[in-house]
Amino acid sequence: MSIHAAGYERQSAARANKSEASPATQRAANRGEADRRRAAGADVQWVGHYEDIGISAFNGKERPAYERLLKDCRAGRVNMIIVYCISRLSRMEPLDAIPVVTELLNLGVTIVSVTEGEFRKGNLMDLIHLIMRLDAAHNESKNRSAAVNGAKLLAKEAGGYIGGTAPYGRKLTPETRRTPDGRPIVVQVLTAHPEEAKVIRDLWELIKYHKENPHVRQPGDGRVMPGSIGWLAAKLNRDGVPTRGATTGKARKDSGWRPNTLTRILRDPTLAGYHTEPVYKMRDDGTRTKTVAEYRIVRDEHGEPVTAWEPILEAAEWWQLQEWIKVRSTRKWSGFSRNLLTSTGMLYCECGRSMKSAAAVKPDARQSTYRCSRPTGMVVPGQHTGTSAISQPLLDDYVARRVFAIIETAEDDEAAGDILYEAQKRLGETTEPTETAQERAALVAERADVARALEQLYDVQDSYTRTEIGRKRWTSDVAAQEDRMAAAEERIAALAALDVPELPIASWLECDSDAIEGDSIGPGTWWAKADLTARRNLLALFVNRVIVRKAETRERAVRGKAWKGGAGHDRVGH
């Protein structure tokens, strides 16, 4: 019978430089074993290599090439699997791995280990030997995992950095410290990388310069403003400043600076020397992935950031940088749009897409419209057909009058008073120091994390509480999470109790003596005299979203009408 041999190669972690030396060695050994058998007279036909790179055989994670190999074995296309050693095939518990191995042997598949021998059906000693090798491979991984986790915990307790690769601007430096029992231990600490730290400091100087000397946009300037993130990234590329990828390994040697990468670097709390902990992305089912979403500042019992490293930027300057990044997104296009509701992130069509400005073709500005940004010609079932548009002047007037109706009736209308209270809190959040805003965000994230942890504990309550020890452990874990929740709630309440600025209602309602009585936004009013930024800032305190619904009839008589009063919550039609 002809032997259809295939090689299986696996490496649990892909090399950063894509050298993949271990799989290369495995490929050569596996193909060499097939060639040796053919040279010895066996009818061996080489099917090919099946490779899983960057995938562990210990944690049960899906291995695409492995699954494809099993499928080909079941289809009769492969009847000999050659691996460098059995641990390449599986590091799972023997009881979990044996059913698959037994199925392969029953299919007549011979398993060949280049370093450990041959395993085939019908030989009891082969099966016993195979089970022993599977058990040894599993225990090796299990012990290695426990040792690595123990070493990380010990390094963390000694103040070492265990976050993997050092962030941009930093390098890992070995340092000898003492464990709680006095034993010396070498840990990795973050120190400033001279060249990269200089890049960060130079970027901050450029940002400060353009903050203090804002550029006045001129015709032909394009859409990138000097001092913006995009401009800074382009400047780094023009100046030939290497990225981290360009200075390490082969995979990203030609990489360039991108705005998103630069923003992530500038947001890193370790720039200010703060101790951080990773926050992982969550799956839809509430379980945690291994992908880091962000790094959260570790705080002490008083809510103050814990400093662990020598700062690259002084803490006060890093917080100023965060403030600049925060407000940058809200004013990104403010210099390009002169319409009230665009560039605010609040104007949406009923289909869920944002609306854009469409300037009037005729000089008559009253013909300008806001239009749905859905591509022309696109048809989506259940959504409006054709273009959805509404008059800019009418919608601007409508929204402004709705807001001022709330302001004017707050004393007599309980619902309007509640809205004013929320607007006051929003004003406080927009004017509070960035450090306070960061702490608030961290606390909200902490509260959400605790809620997920409690939910998971209650999901597994039955398996925990079957024994007395399990019940005690479950009760202790729940109590610990509830203490975390109480502490977060208490601190959030304390931040909410900080001084909140009063809304300047009197100023908003001021008007000239010749203003029309009862018209809060007409000539002579605060609204009429306010610039575009001031108007947008006022709306942002009261409005989350403006949704425009396309009218059911196409008659031209159906138009938006200027709203004249009342604090209702009806939607805008046109």
Automatic annotation (TrEMBL):
Pfam family, one: Resolvase
Coiled-coil ranges per UniProt: 471-498
Recorded GO MF terms: DNA binding; DNA strand exchange activity
SUPFAM superfamilies: Resolvase-like
UniProt keyword annotations, A-Z: Coiled coil, DNA recombination, DNA-binding
Ranges for region Disordered: 1-37
Domain Recombinase: from-to ranges: 167-331
Name the UniProt record assigns to this protein: Resolvase domain-containing protein
Species for this entry: Streptomyces zinciresistens K42
Lineage start: Bacteria, Bacillati, Actinomycetota, Actinomycetes, Kitasatosporales
